[in-house]
Amino acid sequence: MSESVAGAGEAGVAGAVGVGGAAGVGPSGDPYAWLPATIVSSIARTSRARSLTLAVPGLRPARAGQHVDLRLTADDGYTAVRSYSLSDVRASGASDVDGDGADPAASGARGGGGAGPVPQIEVTVERLDDGEVSPYLVDAAEPGDPIEVRGPIGGWFVWPPTEFDPESAVHAVLPEPEGATPPTSAPVQLVGGGSGVAPLMAMVRARGRDAPPMRLLASVRDPGSRWFVAELDEAARASSGRDATGPRAPLVVDWVYSRTAPEGHDRRAGRLTRDELERSVLPASEHPLVYVCGANSFVAVVAGWLVELGHAPTRVRTERFGGV
User: Fold this and answer.
1) Residue 236 in contact with residue 253, Cβ under 8 Å?
2) What is the DSSP string of 194-257?
3) CA distances, 322 to each of 6, 7, 123, 149, 295 (Å)
4) Dihedral angle at the C-alpha atoms of 201, 185, 67, 231, nearest 10 degrees?
5) What distance in Å separates the CA atoms of residue 98 and residue 245, rounded to the nearest whole number?
6) Helix (H) or strand (E) holding 126
7) DSSP label at 65?
């Protein structure tokens, strides 16, 4: 995702390129303690975005849709903290996914003494030219570099969804639509704006073969701004068939371009409209569980349209970034 999930600003002194020592790690047993981590791989997604895989000993299993805080500490002690959505949680120990691709946990970094795989997570970061953290993570960070991690964080914007007790206050405040399929088996609609596709990609990757139908609508500026395009295209293609174990979990991916569309695309470039949204998402009559992620303005508009189109507010879950 972009520089912040929850609106952290970008003011400050640039150049935080290290991490603090053991004193930065919280007390044992604290689920939100700062944990020392190491960058183990770096993959360019676009000219302005990069995915970093982090090995984090002691990390709790992460769920698709959650985020983590990353902390960098300069030589003079100055620290900078930013929140980033997780774009892959499969190697964190969160699931036994046997989806369309190889689980990165199978080849993950291992702890000393044969302790087994060290939990790994992936964050995907977009460079902000006036930022102090994202330029380092996108342009300078390399495998072997240290960093600190806190999390994973979040329990509402996750898939598979959290199951709440029917007698809990959650159901009293957010009742389920009458006649709707339970959230854990409901079809899933993902809507991402720009870098908001990051946590949605984690959900796509977390699909098992028995997952409900899933559809992704991604709105980007131009073809060069698409994250994970080859992997998404392959996952959608593979999901249309069967293999030795039976049918694969269905996945449909739609791209919308706001500024420049690729040659031959069936839609002219322009902002997503309400009518296009209605044509491109699972209908409200199917009671899908909808996840919307992107900049504040994008999420506010799309969530409002979805409710206008008949989607139950309790089934529209949002995550946004940017200033407030």
Assistant:
1) yes
2) GGGHHHHHHHHHT--TTPPPEEEEEEESSGGG-SSHHHHHHHHHHHTSEETTEEPPPEEEEEEE
3) 7, 5, 17, 21, 6
4) -10
5) 11
6) strand 120-126
7) T
Spatial contact of 150 and 34, defined as CB atoms under 8 Å apart: yes
- pLDDT, mean over the chain: 84
The single-letter DSSP state of residue 303 is H
Dihedral of the alpha carbons of 146, 94, 247, 212, in degrees to the nearest 10: -110
Kindly tell me the sign of the dihedral angle through the C-alpha atoms of 7, 12, 16, 20: negative
Q: What is the pLDDT of residue 99?
A: 42
Of the candidates 255, 10, 282, the one whose C-alpha atom is nearest the C-alpha of residue 2 is 10
Q: What angle do CA 96, 100, 104 make, to 5 degrees?
A: 55
Percent of the chain residues topping a pLDDT of 90: 64
Judging by DSSP bridges, how do beta strands 246-247 and 251-257 pair with one another? Answer: unpaired
- pLDDT the model gives residue 156: 92
DSSP at 184: G
- Angle at which helix 229-239 crosses helix 197-205, to 10 degrees, equals 40
- Higher-scoring residue by pLDDT: 28, 125: 125
